[in-house]
Amino acid sequence: MRVLTITEYDGSRFFGSQIQASTKETVMGRLGEALESVGIFAAPLASGRTDSGVHALCQPITFDIPPYWESELGKLRAHLNHKLAPYIKIKKITPVEDDFHPRFHAKKRVYRYALKIGEHDPFLSDYMTFVKALEMAKIEKAIKLFEGEHDFGLFKKNGSEEKSSVRIIYKASFYRRRDLYIFRFEANSFLRSQIRLMMGALLDISEGKITDEELKEQIEGTQRHTARIAPPNGLYLSKVFY
Q1: For residues 209 and 225, what is the distance between their CA atoms, to the nearest angstrom?
Q2: Domain check: are 73 and 163 in the same one?
Q3: Does 84 share its domain with 180?
Q4: Could you tell me what percent of the chain has a pLDDT over 90?
Q5: 61, 7 in Cβ contact below 8 A?
Q6: What distance in Å separates the CA atoms of residue 177 and residue 150, rounded to the nearest whole number?
Q7: What is the pLDDT of residues 189-216, one digit of tens each?
Q8: Which residues are tagged catalytic?
Q9: Which residues contact 156 (CB under 8 A, 6 or more apart)?
Q10: Strands (E) located in 70-141
C-alpha cells in the first residue's frame, strides 16, 4: 500500500532534502534510515527538493509500506517521529492510490519567505533573513511583475535539469505579521532556486540597484540585470495542492 505523509522539517540542520552520496545529513537520507528501521525499504518520493537551509511546513512524501503496517498507520507515524526527532516531523499519514506521485500530480505549490528589518539575531538567523531596510512601495509594485506565465530561464540556478523554464505564477504578494514581512509565491511549480533569485531581485529593487523596467526585461528573458540570490534560511515550502 502506498501512503502519503505531510512532513515538516528544520532545513538549517540538513544539506538539503535530496539524498546525496557525500553525506547522510539530508532530509530524505534521514527519513530513509527511519523507514528501514521499521522494516520499510521502499524509496521515499517527495513533491520536490529543497536546498540546504530551506525549511518545509508541508512537504508531501510518499512511500510503499508492507501489509503488516497497513492497519497501524498511527503507530507507524509515532515510531517514525521517534526516530526523526527533533528536526523532522511527520504531521499526517494517509493511504493513497498506488500510482500517486507527490511531484507529478501536484497542481500548485506555495512558498513563503520571511524577512525582518534590523540587526541579526543569532537565535533567529536560521529561520529568517535580516535586512537593514525595505522600500515597501517599490516592492509592492515590482512583485506583481512576476505574476502570469513567463519563461523564467534567467531566474534559475545553474545545473537545473528541467526541460522547460516556463512557469505560471498565480499570485505573488507580501504581508506584514508583527515585525516580519512575509512574501508569498504561488505557482504551478518552481525552478531550482527561482524564489531565492526573485527575492534577490526584489531586494535589489528596494535598494535602488535595478529598476522595474530592468526587472521586467529579465522576467521576459531579454536581458539579465541581477543574479542576486537571497539566503535560504528565510524560505519555507508552505503548501502543495493536488
Answers
A1: 9
A2: no
A3: no
A4: 93
A5: yes
A6: 30
A7: 999 999 999 999 999 999 999 999 999 9
A8: 51
A9: 162, 165, 191, 192, 193, 194, 197
A10: 88-96, 108-117, 129-131
Distance CA 176, CA 174 (A): 7
Note whether residue 103 is domain-resident.
no
**Same-domain check for residues 230 and 133:** yes
Structural domain including 212 reads: 108-241
- On whether both 83 and 137 belong to a single domain, the answer is no
Q: Which three cell numbers stand for residue 12?
A: 538549517
Does 101 reside within a domain?
Answer: no
CA-based torsion, 220, 224, 230, 232: positive or negative? positive
Last residue of a domain, one of 63, 96, 129: 96
Residue 22 — very low, low, confident or very high, per pLDDT cuts 50/70/90? confident
**How many structural domains is the chain composed of?**
2
* pLDDT, tens digit (0-9, with 9 covering 90-100), for 150-204: 999 999 987 667 789 999 999 999 999 889 999 999 999 999 999 999 999 999 9
Q: Which of 96, 116, 148 is the last residue of a domain?
A: 96
